[in-house]
């Protein structure tokens, strides 16, 4: 494992946001949802997430998640992703979201 400096870590903008909209993403190669997330002062951003195995659209609405908001935009099929949703692969390779266990202001930075 490569080590990084504190300065390197500070460059990663891991921010809290609340999911406002969830829709199917049939054009994606692997099953995924399209998400619209409110990052407070950073605005509303969209991303796709391969989280369909563990989460329904209904249970994702209103949930706070962590996202990396300072990667360049990335085109996925016909959709432009503006941030990276964070999570961990389970024993089957399905993604489990990284969790915020108490509400924090949208846009809060992980420190």
From TrEMBL:
CDD domains registered for this protein in UniProt: tRNA_bind_CsaA
Keywords noted in UniProt: RNA-binding, tRNA-binding
Coiled-coil boundaries: none
Record keyword tRNA-binding present: yes
Gene3D superfamilies with a match to the protein in the record: Nucleic acid-binding proteins (2.40.50.140)
InterPro entries the UniProt entry points to: CsaA, NA-bd_OB-fold, tRNA-bd_dom, Tyrosine-tRNA_ligase_regulator
Molecular function GO terms recorded: tRNA binding
Limits of the TRNA-binding domain: 8-111
NCBIfam families xrefs: chap_CsaA (TIGR02222), PRK10089.1-2 (NF007493), PRK10089.1-3 (NF007494), PRK10089.1-4 (NF007495)
PANTHER family: TRNA-AMINOACYLATION COFACTOR ARC1 FAMILY MEMBER (PTHR11586), TRNA-BINDING DOMAIN-CONTAINING PROTEIN (PTHR11586:SF37)
UniProt name for this protein: tRNA-binding protein
Organism for this UniProt entry: Mucilaginibacter pedocola
